[in-house]
Design brief:
The structure is a single chain. This protein is α+β, with helices and mostly antiparallel strands. It is built from one helix and eleven strands. The longest helix has 31 residues.
Length: 156
C-alpha cells in the first residue's frame, strides 16, 4: 500500500490567500475602468453633413459638425487633401457661418453643432492636384485634443 501525501495546510493557505488577492486586484482595476467610462470626459465629433456646391466660379464646401461627446471641443485646424489651412494657397477661405457670432477656430459644446464653410476657387492647385469638377476632396478637422475627423466628398 502506498502512502499518499498532499500539500501542507500552510502552503494551501498561502496559495488561497494569493489567488484571493490577485482576484481582488483584478476586480478593482476593472471597476476603476468602468467608473472612468461613465464619469470621464470624452471628445467626440461627428459629421452631420458635408457637401459642395458651385457658386460664382467657386466650390463652396459646407461641413456641419456635432459634438456627441461630453467635453467641449475646439477645432483648431482644417486639412484639404492633407494640406493644413495655414498653408492653403490664396483664394481659399474658411469661416464659421453658424452659430452666429462664432469665429474661426470654433469651440463646440457637448450636444452643439457648428457649420463651417470653405470657399475654393475652381481649378485651384492643392496638394499636388487640381481641384476641379468630379475630383474627390478630403476634408479633415483637427481638434486641440489631438483628434482628427476626416470625411470625403466629390466636387460637383
Amino acid at each position: 500500500m502506498q502512502k499518499r501525501r498532499g500539500i501542507s495546510p500552510v502552503i494551501a493557505t498561502v496559495i488561497i490567500v494569493a489567488v484571493t488577492i490577485a482576484v481582488a486586484i483584478a476586480v478593482a482595476f476593472w471597476m476603476t475602468g468602468i467608473i472612468g467610462l461613465f464619469t470621464g470626459t470624452v471628445e467626440k465629433v461627428e459629421f452631420v453633413s458635408l457637401y459642395a456646391v458651385v457658386q460664382d466660379n467657386n466650390f463652396v464646401v459646407t461641413a456641419i459638425l456635432r459634438n456627441t461627446g461630453t467635453a467641449p471641443v475646439t477645432i483648431d485646424r482644417c486639412f484639404l487633401n492633407g494640406m493644413p489651412n495655414d498653408q492653403w494657397p490664396g483664394g481659399i477661405n474658411i469661416r464659421v457661418i453658424a452659430p452666429e457670432g462664432v469665429n474661426w477656430p470654433p469651440t463646440i459644446n457637448p450636444g452643439g453643432d457648428v457649420t463651417i464653410q470653405i470657399t475654393i476657387p475652381i481649378d485651384t492647385q492643392l496638394g499636388g492636384g487640381t481641384l476641379t469638377h468630379g475630383v474627390s476632396l478630403e476634408v479633415k478637422f483637427h481638434s486641440t485634443g489631438g483628434r482628427e475627423y476626416p470625411r470625403l466628398t466629390v466636387l460637383p
